[in-house]
Amino acid sequence: MRRQNELKLRSATLEDAHDLWLWRNDPVTRANSFHGQKISLREHTRWLQKSLRSRRRRIYIATRKGERAGTIRFDFLPPKVIQISINLSPEFRGKGYGKLILKKASDLMIKKYPDHFQKALIKKGNQKSEKVFTSAGFLKIHETEEGYSVWIRNSH
Ligand SMILES: CC(C)(COP(=O)(O)OP(=O)(O)OC[C@H]1O[C@@H](n2cnc3c(N)ncnc32)[C@H](O)[C@@H]1OP(=O)(O)O)[C@@H](O)C(=O)NCCC(=O)NCCS
């Protein structure tokens, strides 16, 4: 509980661009993602500017004692689906923070959007991620032939 309380969520800003870019281009992140290529800081910053303006996307930064620990992104898809993805700073991985951050952010979205389903796509073999999503109340509902599984959490 103490560790949970140490973590805070805030909305991302352009000042987070550099860290978000480093985490995004990290090799483990790329391996667990559907797009393997790295991108330039310039391209990433353009994407972030657009994302911060978008009404269909929310990006949060999780902090611990003021330090950036990771990010959670929510994409609103019609009709009432929120697709969620998580990426921790490499220094914060492997220490149990994934579960705490995902639960906190997912609970917040359930509170804000109780009539929406939350959905996540997990690449085959990402067992850490499967454990983290299971512990936050997600269920695997489908495995695709393209090598990923579909997970949902609903608030009903
Ligand atoms: C995936 C991610 C969110 C997991 O968060 P984390 O805090 O690093 O997770 P942990 O290392 O604490 O591991 C979570 C669980 O998986 C277990 N685990 C770790 N490595 C594992 C492995 N190779 N196989 C199976 N289980 C493993 C841990 O023991 C832990 O389980 P427990 O709580 O029952 O002990 C984080 O590592 C990350 O951001 N990775 C890069 C980006 C990514 O993969 N995002 C997810 C895309 S869907």
Overview of the structural elements:
With 156 residues, the chain is an alpha+beta fold. Helices cover 37% and strands 33% of the residues. It has helices at 2-6, 17-25, 27-31, 41-53, 97-112, 127-135; strands spanning 7-11, 57-64, 67-77, 81-88, 117-123, 139-143, 148-154. Strands 1-2-3-4-5-7-6 form a 7-stranded mixed sheet, sandwiched between helices. Helix 5 (97-112) crosses helix 6 (127-135). It starts with a helix and ends with a strand. It binds coenzyme A (COA). Coenzyme A (COA) binds at residues 28-29, 32, 85-88, 93-98, 120, 122, 126-129, 131-132.
Describe the structure concisely for a colleague:
This protein has helices spanning 2-6, 17-25, 27-31, 41-53, 97-112, 127-135, and strands spanning 7-11, 57-64, 67-77, 81-88, 117-123, 139-143, 148-154.
